[in-house]
Write a structure and sequence with these properties.
74% helix; mainly alpha
Length: 91
């Protein structure tokens, strides 16, 4: 999650008549979002609450794809190690 998404959450809360706070934002944000992102987003929203924010979902997909590629590489490496262990046991 990035600051643009935090700003969007702040705007939504404000439209609902609620004063954005770290606790309210955190309850609506993705789990694992670092605290500095919450603080930066809230500060940016406070400095310009009516700013237009574009949340890039493609960037999130790219990060997910990269993570999946990394996971596949790790799994492939583990399979290769298991195959090598099996070959040793056969001998």
């Amino acid at each position: 999650m990035n600051t643009a998404e935090i700003i969007r959450i702040c705007q939504t809360l404000s439209q609902q008549g609620k004063e954005p706070s770290i606790a309210l934002i955190k309850s609506r944000a993705e789990k694992g979002t670092p605290m500095p992102v919450f603080i930066a987003g809230l500060q940016q929203w406070r400095s310009n609450p009516n700013a237009t924010v574009v949340v890039e979902k493609d960037a999130k997909k790219a990060n997910t794809k990269q993570t999946l590629e990394q996971r596949v590489q790790t799994l492939e490496q583990e399979v290769a190690e298991l195959k090598a262990s099996l070959l040793k046991l056969k001998d």
